[in-house]
UniProtKB/TrEMBL annotation:
PANTHER family: LPS-ASSEMBLY PROTEIN, LPS-ASSEMBLY PROTEIN LPTD. Keywords: Signal. The keyword Cytoplasm does not apply. InterPro entries: LptD. Residues 1-22 form the signal peptide. One of its GO terms (cellular component) is transporter complex. It comes from candidate division TA06 bacterium ADurb.Bin131. The keyword Iron does not apply. This is LPS-assembly protein LptD.
Length: 632
């Protein structure tokens, strides 16, 4: 059904202006002529002179336009400007449909903040643009500092996809990509170029490209390093759907380095992978795995990951919830010297659901496992668990007495061993709340005490969690405080303590504290210690102060066998300048084990800077990257 046009004639300053109103858009022009249908409804309208067409959130300005009221098409033969939100297009010829929000524009310039470009052909779609034969940049100068030449480019609010990409600095081409996609939500610079010196690589050039998968589910970062002593390449694939409030589900990174000596022994490579996902069908997968050709390579080329993961085992777990029971497969590997053993056989765990037995609940676990220990000896173990417990609730407390029977059957070559363990004890959980004005403190302690009775006190095999069945009476205490103010979580304190009553000694205990009292300071603390055996095993305490554009962090760090000292960090933004530094000083070795310094400045559309880094390697270099999405 055609919509009727109301036409008004206004005379002002000897300028005759026609204003046309419709349900979808309104127009103003110096001259208007309209063809009507036999039923008297408008069909074709021709507008000339100072034309302005407004519809929804789009504005079109031109000198001549023809409107088809049936199809909604607008054809413009002279200079046109289209404005819609962050999008602005100027074109010599175009067609645009105000109903579908789709149009084509030829010989045009466009801006889609923060992008600027020129293109032979642009197709305007509802949620973005698609350009052919396009020159694209984030520099708003007529002769940009850098630009990208693209066979085709598609820009939407969340993503940019390019085919046939050439990167130019000035008029000089420096790199070519057959295809490139970038996730605009990540706020990472699309590329970074740096040159300088690094101990293992020599003098060299590094290029890093950040892009995304076709469906935007994964962020991808590629790194290429060309040095006088060797060649390196790496890739990192990370979850691209995570937000600031949602943690990443996982990542995979791999890196390889080849020295120019020509020997296969000088080729090093490795990977690190992390993944965690809970599926809707009650399945859960957790992966934290790495493999490195040598510890030297891990330490020299992936220092931060080496410090974080070198003492942790590789771990893979699959769990399927079946009613109130579960089926799971776990793989745990030592991952310290022999990073991965091909002989490793999964640990399989099967749990039956809780069964009501009067006022008691019963559960059963069956766990067959095959092991290869540190000496290469193979053995099998079948673990069976039966547990009965009786929860009793009263107010904000819950006490659960329990009895457990565990049988561990071991087979190695012709040798067999059976270890039967019976346990009895109780768990006590409490919840307390303290309130004062707008402040609330939740206190949740858990106390456990139990006794183990074992048939075999010494197990001549490598031990894991299921083999840890000491004979005696034990207690564990878990304490947790959560602090709230005006319904905002301000911090928490957590401690976990395990104590052998008969031997009067502690096992490893953990203490954690996390506070962010306001936006000006925060405190983070994590310690693992054993008062009976070695004291502190691991410690990381940091205080961060923030004021305006300045942030300072100080703390102490301890990692048994690797580091014992103090840490510091500094970040300052001053106008277009940014200064960043971080230091780790080992007091026992009396030296800085890690140093990072960066000075950078935004120069129009680019960020240029100098970076110095020294840990187990030394590198110094100059870098340049686009400024539009660089983290500040």
């Amino acid at each position: 059904m055609l919509k009727f046009f109301n036409v008004c004639f206004l005379l002002a300053s000897l300028l005759l202006t026609y204003i046309l109103y419709a349900a979808e858009f309104e127009c103003t022009a110096d001259n208007v002529s309209t063809l009507f249908t036999e039923s008297g409804e408008p069909y074709i309208t021709t507008l000339e002179g100072n034309i302005k067409i407004v519809s929804a959130d789009a504005i079109i300005e031109c000198n001549k336009a023809v409107i088809n009221h049936i199809s909604g098409d607008i054809e413009i033969e002279t200079g046109l400007t289209l404005s819609q939100g962050n999008l602005k297009i100027t074109s010599t010829h175009s067609t645009y449909n105000m109903q579908t929000d789709f149009g084509t524009f030829t010989n045009n310039k466009f801006s889609y903040i923060p992008f600027y470009g020129r293109s032979e052909l642009v197709k305007k779609e509802k949620d973005g643009i698609n350009a052919k034969g396009c020159i694209l940049t984030t520099c708003d100068r007529e002769n940009p500092h850098y630009h990208l030449f693209c066979d085709s480019v598609q820009i939407s609010p969340d993503k940019i996809s390019i085919k046939g990409l050439k990167i130019y600095f000035g008029n000089k081409p420096i790199f070519y990509f057959p295809g490139y996609s970038y996730n605009l939500r990540t706020k990472k610079p699309p590329f970074q170029i740096s040159s300088g010196h690094k101990t293992e690589i020599g003098n060299g050039l590094s290029l890093i490209f950040n892009n995304t998968s076709k469906d935007s589910k994964f962020d991808i970062s590629e790194k290429i390093t060309i040095g006088t002593d060797g060649l390196g390449a790496g890739i990192k694939i990370a979850d691209g759907t995570a937000s600031e409030t949602q943690p990443s589900k996982g990542s995979f990174s791999s890196y390889a380095f080849k020295k120019y000596s020509g020997s296969n022994d000088d080729l090093y490579y490795g990977f690190l992978g992390e993944f965690h996902n809970e599926f809707s069908n009650k399945q859960n997968i957790i992966v934290d795995w790495r493999w490195m050709k040598s510890e030297w390579f891990f330490r020299k080329h992936l220092y931060d990951s080496f410090i974080e993961k070198s003492r942790n085992p590789n771990y893979l777990s699959y769990t399927k919830i079946i009613g109130e029971g579960a089926f799971s497969v776990n793989i745990i590997d030592d991952a310290q010297e022999d990073f991965l053993s091909a002989k490793k056989i999964p640990e399989i765990e099967f749990s039956l659901p809780y069964i009501n037995m009067g006022k008691w609940l019963g559960s059963f676990q069956f766990i067959p496992t095959r092991f290869v220990d540190d000496k290469g000896n193979e053995y099998s173990r079948v673990m069976s668990d039966i547990e009965f417990d009786r929860p009793i609730s009263a107010g904000f407390s819950k006490i659960t007495p329990f009895v457990r029977f565990r049988n561990a059957y071991y087979v190695q070559d012709q040798d067999e061993m059976n270890n039967f363990i019976s346990s009895a004890g109780f768990n006590l959980k409490l919840l307390a709340l303290s309130q004062e004005k707008n402040n609330s403190v939740y206190f949740s302690p858990t106390f456990s005490i139990f006794s183990n009775f074992v048939s075999e006190k010494n197990i001549p095999f490598s031990s894991d969690l299921y083999d840890f069945n000491p004979d005696g009476t034990f207690t564990s205490i878990n304490l947790s405080w959560d602090f709230w103010k005006n319904n905002i979580h301000k911090g928490n304190i957590t401690s976990m303590i395990f104590y052998d009553i008969e031997e009067t000694e502690f096992e490893d205990s953990i203490f954690m504290l996390d506070f962010a009292q306001n936006k000006q300071w925060s405190f983070h603390c994590q310690e693992r210690f054993n008062p009976s055996n070695g004291g502190i095993k691991e410690m990381n305490n940091t205080v961060i102060f923030k004021k305006g554009n300045t942030q300072v962090g100080v703390g102490n760090k301890y990692l048994s066998g690797y580091f014992e000292g103090i840490t510091g960090s500094f970040n300052k933004i001053y106008g277009n300048w940014e200064f960043d530094a971080s230091l780790d000083y080992d007091r026992k070795k009396s030296k800085f084990t890690s140093q990072h310094y960066t000075i950078q400045k935004q120069v129009h559309c680019l960020i240029v800077g100098i970076r110095f880094s020294k840990n187990s390697s030394t590198s110094v270099g100059f870098f340049v990257m686009p400024a539009f999405l660089a983290r500040r």
